[in-house]
Every structure is written in C-alpha cells, then in structure tokens.
Write a structure and sequence with these properties.
heterotrimer, A alpha/beta (437), B mainly alpha (293), C mainly alpha (312), A: 437 residues, alpha/beta, five-stranded mixed beta sheet, 18 helices, 10 strands, 46% helix, B: 293 residues, mainly alpha, 63% helix, globular
Chain lengths: 437, 293, 312
C-alpha cells in the first residue's frame, strides 16, 4: 500500500509518456494510411480471385489454363482466395494492403458498397462500346445484378440463381396429393403444406430459413412480388412493402408457421437440406445449388413458385468485378471469352450453373445441359419468365434487409402480428432511406 | 527449445530420481474413473463425431438427424490430402507456429519475470498497456493492422503471420502470474550467491516453470495454428497459405463436402494433439516444489 | 497443520513487505527485460488500437480515411436501443460464463492431477474441445440443441419434461450460447489450473497429511489459496474474452432470434461488415475498450490483494 501512494506521482509521468508515444504511433499510422495505394501485379499475369471449390474449382482452373495457352501475352492467374463468404472482406483488405486483384468474384449484395471505391473499375463504357459482348443477351436478372441504380455497370455476371419449388414426390404420393403445377396458387400451396405435415412423424410441409439474414428476406420479397407488391417505391426513396400485398404475404407466413405449424423454421444452419433428404420436409423454396446436395434415393421434382397475382421469383446474381486499372484490358478480354455463350455453356455443363445468356439455351450443347441437370429446366424458364424484378442495388439495402429480416422473423415466431410488424418495419426503412439520401 | 528451457539446471538439487513416484496403492481401479470417464466422453464427443463424419460417404452426412456411417471410407483422407498442396500448407503452418512458440517462450519469460519481480518505472502502466491491445475487438483492428504490415512490407509473407504473434499479451500475462507463485527466497538466494538477474532467471527460476512453459507452448501453438481470419486477410499467394486457409478449399459457399472437410480437419488437428501430448508430460509437480526447503 | 499454515503466512508476509525501494539498476533491468515483448506488442497492437479510435470519430468504411463527424457516432450509440440491448446481453453472458467456467474447472483440474491409470487420456479428452474448430462446434451444438430433432429434447421428452427452444427461443438463446462456450473453454481453464497445481509445494501437502488434515481440508486450506494467481489470470482473461464474444454467436444464432443473442461484438461486426458503418463500429469498439480496461484494472487490483506471494 505504501509503495503505491509513493509511486502515484510517477505514474502520472508514465501516463504522459505513454500518451506521447501513442501520438507518435498515430502519426506513423496516418502516413501509412495516407500514401496512395499502387496497383500491383502489373508485372505478370492478372490475378483472378474466386471461391469455387470441388467441380466448380476444377472447371474454372481448366478454363484458365486453356486461356493462358491460347493467349501467352495476356495470362490470367486463376487463384482460389477462400470461400466466397469472405470475398468482400478479403477484397477490402486488399485495398488496404495495396495489392488488389485484377478480378474477383463478389456476391451481388456487395456491388453497391464496392462501386463507391476508387479501385473498382466502372465497366459501362467498355460494355457499351463492345457490341460483340452482346450485353442484352444476358438474362435481365444478371444484367440488373451488375448494374447500380444510376445505370453504371460495375460487374460482369458470374452466376445467376433463382428460387423454385422443390418437392419430394414420395411424400406427395403418400399424402395422396397431386404434384404442384405451374399455376399453383398460394391456397393450393398452403393446403398441400398442411396435409404434408404430420406432427407424430415430425414431418413438415415446408421449410423457411429463419435466421433473419438475407436468406430470410429474399423469400419474403418473392412473396411480396407474387402478391403484386414491391419493396420500395420506384425512386427508392420510401418503403412500399407495407401494402395490401405485403400484408397478404406476411399473413401467409403467419398462417402457415403459427396457425398450421406446417413450416420447419431453420435456424440458419441449413439443416433443411438434410431434413429434405431424410424425408422430413416435403417442399423447399430453393435454388439450383441445393439440387446437387439431394441424395440419389430421393425422387424429387421442381416447379415454379406458387402464385397470387404472378408467379414471380427472385434471383441471386453474383459478379466478377475489376479492381485494377493496369489489368483492365487483359481482364476484360478474359471475361469476354469466359462469358461467351460457348465457353459459359461448357462451364454450366461442368458445374450445373444456370446459363447466363439467352443465346446459350439455343446452342446444341444446351441439350446436354438439360440431360445432365433435368431439374434445372424450371430454373432456366424462371429466368426467362418469372424474374422480372430485382432487389434494389442501393447502399442502404443491407440495412433495409436487416429490418425486413427482423420483421419476418417476429411474424414466423408468432411474436408480432403481420400488420404491426409491417408498420414498424416501414417506419424504420423510411428513416434509413431519409438518412441515406 | 521448450526442452532446453525446462531442463533442470545442474545447480538445482533435483534429478529425475526425485520425481515423485506413485505411492503404493491397491490394485483395484480407482473410483475416480467413475467421474473421469463420463467427463471424457462429454469432452471427446466432437472429435468422435468429426472422425465419424470423415469416414462417411457424402450421402450419409446429408441425413438429419445424423446416424452412424455404414462403412469406413478412408478415401476421404486421401482425397483431402491430394485435393490441394496439403503438405505445403502444413509446412507453412508449422514454420509460423513453431517460430512464434519459440519466440513467445523467450520474450514472454523475460517480460513476465520483470513484470512479476522487478519494480521499475512505469511497469504497471506498461503492463496494462500490453493487455489493452486485446481490448478492441479484432474485427475493428484487423484492417488497421494490415496498414502496419504494409508499412513494414510484410503483406503476403509468412512474416505477416508471425509478426503480431512473436510476443503475445497472453504469454506475458501468463508468465507474470506464474512467476509470482515461485517463492522469493529462491531468487534471493541465487542473487546473494552473486548471480545476475538473467542468470537467476535462466538457471534457477525457469527450470521450475516447466508446467507453465508447457502450458504457454500448447496454448500459443493452438491459437496460432487455428487462426483463420488474420491469415485470410494478410495472405494472398497460394504458396503462403496456412492449413486453416487450405481447409477452405473443401468448404463451398453453398455445398460443403463434409467427409473430405472433416478428414482434412482431423489431419490438421493431429499436430496440435501431439504437441499437447508432449507438453502434458511436463504437468508433473515441478522439481523445485519438492526440492525447495 | 499449524506449522504448515504459519510457515505459509510467514512466507506470504515476507513477500508482501519485501518492498525495498527500487534501485536504478532495477529500472534498467526491468525495461531491458520487457522491451522486446513490449515493443513488438506495441507495434502490432497499439497502433491499430489507436487507429481504430480515430476512426470512431469519422464516417468511414474502415479502409479509407473518412470524413470527421466529431462525436456523432457516440451520440448515435447512446440513442440506439439495439446497442443497449447488446450491451445488456454482453454483461449477462459474461456474468454467467466466467464464474461457471472457473467453478467447474477447479475440481476437474484437481481430478486430472491425480495419479490414476490413463490420466494422459483423460487430460487429452478435456483438451479436445479447445482444438475443435468453432465451425465444427457450431454444427454440433446446432444439432444438440435442435428443438425438433436434437438429442437433448429427445432426452427431455423421454423423461416427460417439456420441450425447449434453445437457439430458437428468445429467452433461451443466450443461456444456450453460455452452455456451448463453457464447454468450449473449460479445457482452457482446466489446463491453466492444472499447471498451477504443479506449483503447489509437495512438502506442504505432505505436511498437511502428516498433521492429519484431510484431503478436502488440505485442498481448501492450502491448494486453493495457492491457485490465486491462476484464478486472477483466468478471471481477467476469461472476462476480456467473454466481453468480446463473437465466433460462437456467428456460427450458431447469428445474434437472433430477434436480437436475443446479439452481443456487442456481433453487433459491431454487423455494423462494420454488413451495413458498412465503419465509424460507428469503431465507436462501439472504443466504448467496449474503455469498459474492458476499467474491469481489467479493477480485477488486477483485486488479484494483487488476494495473491499470497505478490509484492504490493
């Protein structure tokens, strides 16, 4: 105790010293941050980051090799850069470290954030001035996913998915229900789900991802569109989902989850896939990526989503984005080739990815694709017919998504009534949009 | 290195012969097994589960609730090994981890001893400052740390992985705490004999710190070996990837090949378990505890 | 018994009052010993921390210097209900996790310090959860806790007990995370205690045995007080980590349902990397820093008072 009081005066001195040292360090950090990031990799091949694994990884590596053989002066270094889930983090880090890749695979949701960066290349003029690239040949969903609301093109489509109804035929047979048709209504869907639910066998008609993430949100947006509603006003200035359409969508979720108990609420661990394989869930709203995870002993079918006003579905487009001015020409040449109808169709056949371009479906090889992935036919038709709208690519979208996710979750858990949940969400979204504008 | 640090110095009285030996007990198995066995089962469950997944077929892992595999598929292990440069990833991880463990043993012993036993100007503030570096979540300091790395031209090198871990607040704190458990008389006796501080530390005190140094080694090894986020951010070239980044190769964004991922994971954890097995041999009462007074 | 305890007390007393005045050589030696570690930690630790504090006064995306906004981020924080909710969850989590982990770890460490056949195996078993990646732990606990198909609820229904919601229930999500993290961290605390037990002088325990002091009493009287430095270490260390809980939430509940398990660092992560409010995230980080700093200093001070050997 004695020594402590003795040293009190000294400790103040220590503190002053430490503050001085801290200030010096901050100055150092400031210098490091201030110096401009220079582009790397101009010396050699263009670095192409992807998160493809397994079949996809093999296919992209093979294509990269082919390109490099044919274009020894425009080499591309196809590099696995970790899971796509971490792509944005890794890209941002590369901006900080000054070693941005020439091209990277990015989730569609990242485009609004990345488009604001100096490093991100605006591709509008390249795309517009290259008629042979045939931009309008891409499915609308793919084009929308690569474009910001001001019309700037910041990405080259890499993948386009959408949701369809995937159902277990055996469970339908057992319940004596006929398979879903393209003209199924919400009522047909809800009734079927109820009949396919069996408490004693712990069997559910439908599954809904209920972690409040975008996984929760995009299925709700599909419902909203099917009912004729939309998320925001056309100018993206105000919420538009607290409408009769929004209410009917929320009511459907409420009736099925809370009243009928016909929905398995997935906590976000994607267990619904395994439960589908175990015959515990009869219907999923999911995309082509889940099909390769369905076990061979499960006989399943795919169908358009049920409808109310329309049978709208929602697409999840991802992009290749360019981050390096010096690499731009080579990267652009490579991506033009990679996304040409013939080459992309080959990639699709190898991986089960949907075609990106309408013209791919007219190539002779497309029949091979359908033969190999018969269930994908519905998804491709969806791209042609039922993907008419897209999520707004605005910087505020992630915040809006969080609000909607919470609203949907509270309805599914029976913690809020549909109208109340919508009203509260509308208030918050309007606030976000007002602050962001 | 760990061995060198914890070897009993010639000056101390204890030799292996004085290792406490089990007293004569009845041959009946101890009743402690009744508590220890269920405890072990509870703790081992994930490892068992991982091993079971790693020998399953993909179809078997796609069931819920999960069941036992129908047979043993060792192919998953060969698939994991040959999918990428597994050996190379292991090598990178080993280089980084070993370097950091050795450096921590030395630097944290020095600093921990000084913080525990030397009263010097500013020691308390500096000590809290060391701990303070851990009080801002990594998610926030991750990108600023990268700025420091860029200033040092270490981005995308193994140096970037080692730098922040050469001396850890964990090691400094742990050593400081455990140096306070050694009786002061030991040190004072050595100093009266004319030994300098460094000599006292290396010849008298450190030999008594075997269990602590072993603990420091294991836990440092573990945390650096398992680190994922920092390598992901700091490393770009495939040649500099560590094992944890390599395991990402088996983890697709939509579909994960669980058997192969688990086979890779099990293989990647073997070095950690081996290090633990070696280290826990030092978990015997330190010699001095019996030799002293 | 008396001889043992009085000896200890004498030693402790000597330790406490050994406070000779520091000499110049001590200052020099102290700095020489700590400077390699301190410089490294300062370079790689302090600079980023200072940098992140600067960011907290800006509107920024964390990667490029942003615009100065003064204390706007802090004002926003004070009026943000989710922030306070997250702060409350963090405190509750910490208040449950730290004492439970430490209380469970001591008896297990004592057990693992016995001479029993196969003790190496048992020690390794306790170590295994530490080695297991958080992702794998998350998958396992998602299954164990699954309300419809998980084994825990299956067991409860066999016993005729009501079914629980665990991660999917607003009321139970946070306690469920506590259960998962105690399991995951127990091995860490046990190893620290186990190595601390090696420092308990054997002669003390033998003397206690000769004095006819029972094992249990010897533990309370001798071993437990000598574990104080280890306990002080664990208290500080587990608290620092508990207040920064993230990984386990990220791989299981994602902060839900309805924010029920949103803790501060998870909220901060969302702000930084989901909605890109880097400056706001840095402000949360700075606030958390100050809280942890105060808690740690208080804990260190308490630890010093309770330590048998430490000089004051």
């Amino acid at each position: 105790m004695r020594t402590r009081s003795l040293s009190a005066g000294r400790r103040i001195g220590d503190r002053l010293t430490s503050i001085a040292v801290g200030a010096a360090l901050i100055a150092v950090a400031g210098c490091a941050g201030g110096s401009d990031s220079s582009s790397s990799s101009s010396r050699g091949a263009v670095v192409f980051w992807h998160g493809y694994t397994d079949q996809e990884g093999k296919a992209i590596t093979q294509l990269g090799r082919e390109w490099n053989t044919a274009h020894p002066d425009q080499k591309v270094n196809v590099t696995f850069a970790g899971s796509n889930d971490d792509a944005l983090k890794k890209t941002l880090a590369s901006f900080v470290s000054g070693k941005a890749p020439g091209v990277a695979y990015e989730y569609g949701s990242s485009i609004a954030t990345l488009a604001k960066r100096n490093q991100t290349q605006n591709l509008t003029s390249l795309v517009r001035s290259t008629p042979s690239f045939n931009w309008n040949d891409f499915f609308p969903a793919a084009r929308q996913g690569a474009t910001t609301p001001d019309g700037g093109i910041y990405g080259i489509p890499a993948l386009v998915d959408n949701l369809s109804l995937v159902y277990n035929k055996k469970l339908f047979d057992a319940a004596g229900i006929s398979y879903p048709t393209p003209s199924w209504t919400w009522t047909d869907f809800q009734n079927a789900a109820r009949k396919l639910t069996d408490e004693s066998k712990r069997q559910f008609g439908w599954a809904y991802v209920n972690d409040g993430s975008e996984d929760t949100v995009w299925r709700f947006i599909a419902l909203l569109w099917q009912a004729g509603g939309d998320l925001l006003t056309p100018d993206n200035k105000k919420a538009a989902f607290a409408s009769p359409a929004g209410l009917s969508a929320m009511r459907l979720l409420h009736d099925m989850a809370v009243t009928d108990h016909s929905v398995y609420l997935d906590a976000g661990d994607q267990q619904y896939q395994n439960l589908f394989n175990s015959g515990k869930i009869a219907m999923l709203w999911t995309g082509p990526w889940d099909l390769s995870g369905i076990n061979k002993n499960i006989s399943y079918g795919t169908q358009f989503l049920p409808g109310k006003v329309t049978h709208a579905t929602i697409a999840g487009p991802d992009n290749y984005m360019l981050f390096n001015k010096n690499d731009r020409d080579t990267a652009w040449a490579f991506l033009q080739w990679l996304n040409s109808p013939e080459i992309h169709l080959r990639f699709s056949i190898a991986t089960g990815h949907l075609p990106l371009r309408q013209s791919e479906t007219r190539l002779p090889g497309y029949q091979d694709f359908l033969e190999r992935y018969p269930a994908n036919k519905v998804f491709v038709e969806n791209l042609e017919k039922n993907v008419t709208k897209s999520r707004p690519n605005i910087p505020a979208y992630p915040k809006i998504s969080q609000v909607i996710g919470t609203a949907v979750q509270s309805v599914l858990l029976g913690k809020a009534q549909p109208q109340a949940a919508l009203d509260q969400a509308r208030e918050q979204v309007d606030q976000i949009l007002a602050a962001g504008a | 290195m760990a061995g060198a640090l914890v070897r009993p110095a010639p000056g101390t009285r204890a030799g292996p012969a004085r290792r406490p030996r089990p007293r004569v007990r009845s041959r009946r198995p101890s009743r402690l097994h009744l508590i220890l066995a269920p405890l072990a089962a509870l703790m081992l469950a994930p490892l068992v589960w991982m091993v079971l997944l790693s020998i399953s077929t993909q179809e078997e892992t796609r069931r819920f609730p999960p069941g036992l595999p129908g047979g043993i598929r060792w192919q998953n292990y060969t698939a994991a090994w040959s999918e990428g440069p597994f050996g190379h990833w292991l090598l990178n991880s080993t280089i980084v981890t070993t370097g950091c463990v050795v450096s921590n043993l030395v630097l944290c012993s020095l600093a921990g001893y000084a913080f525990a036993r030397i009263r010097f100007f500013g020691s308390r503030v500096v000590f809290v400052g060391v701990l303070a570096t851990l009080m801002v979540p990594f998610q926030i300091v991750m990108l600023p740390t990268l700025i420091v790395m860029r200033g040092l031209h270490l981005v995308d090198t193994l140096g970037a992985l080692m730098g922040p871990n050469l001396a850890t607040p964990f090691g400094v704190f742990l050593m400081r705490q455990f140096f306070t458990t050694l009786p002061r008389e030991l040190e004072e006796a050595a100093r009266i004999d004319g030994a300098g501080r460094l000599r006292t530390l290396t010849r008298v005190l450190l030999p008594l710190m075997g269990p602590t140094l072993a603990t420091l080694s294991v836990l440092t090894f573990l945390s650096i070996w398992n680190d994922f986020l920092w390598p992901l951010i700091a490393i770009q070239s495939p040649g500099n990837m560590t094992i944890q980044m390599g395991l990402q190769n088996f983890q697709g964004s939509h579909l994960t090949n669980w058997p192969v991922l688990m086979a890779g994971t099990v293989m990647s954890q073997i070095p950690v378990l081996v290090v633990f097995l070696i280290a826990q041999r030092f978990f015997v009462r330190s010699i001095a505890a019996t030799g002293f007074r | 018994m008396t001889s043992v305890t009085s000896g200890m007390a004498a030693r402790a007393a000597r330790g406490d009052t050994a406070g000779h005045r520091p000499r110049r050589a001590d200052h020099f030696a102290g700095w020489a010993f700590v400077s390699p570690a301190v410089l490294l930690i300062g370079l790689f630790g302090l600079v980023p921390v200072a940098w992140s504090m600067i960011l907290s006064f800006q509107e920024t995306d964390l990667t490029s210097p942003g615009t100065w906004t003064g204390a706007a981020n802090y004002r926003q924080m004070v009026h943000d209900p989710v922030f306070w909710q997250a702060a409350r969850h963090t405190v509750v989590y910490c208040a449950l996790f730290v004492p439970i982990t430490m209380t469970l770890a001591i008896p297990i460490a004592v057990l693992l310090n016995q001479k029993v056949r196969g003790i190496t195996f048992y020690r390794m078993a306790v170590f295994v959860p530490l080695v297991t990646s958080t992702v794998a732990t998350g998958v396992i606990f998602n299954w164990l806790y699954n309300p419809q198909f998980g084994p825990i609820n299956a067991g409860l229904s066999k016993l005729g007990l009501p079914q629980q919601g665990f991660f999917q229930s607003s009321a139970q999500a946070l306690p469920s995370v506590v259960g998962m993290t105690v399991w995951g961290w127990l091995g860490f605390a046990v190893i620290i205690y186990l190595s601390a037990l090696q420092h308990v002088p054997r002669d003390l325990m033998e003397a206690a045995a000769l004095d006819g002091c029972g094992r249990v009493r010897a533990f309370w009287r001798i071993e437990l007080p000598l574990l104080a430095p280890a306990s002080a270490f664990l208290l500080v260390w587990l608290t620092i980590n508990a207040l920064q809980l993230f990984d386990e939430v990220y791989v299981t509940t994602k902060g839900g349902p309805l924010h029920a398990s949103t803790v501060l660092v998870y909220y901060l992560y969302q702000q930084a990397f989901v909605v890109f409010e880097g400056g706001y995230a840095a402000a949360i980080g700075t606030a958390l820093f100050l809280v942890i700093l105060v808690v740690t200093v208080v804990q260190l001070w308490l630890g010093r008072r309770s330590s048998p050997y430490e000089a004051g």
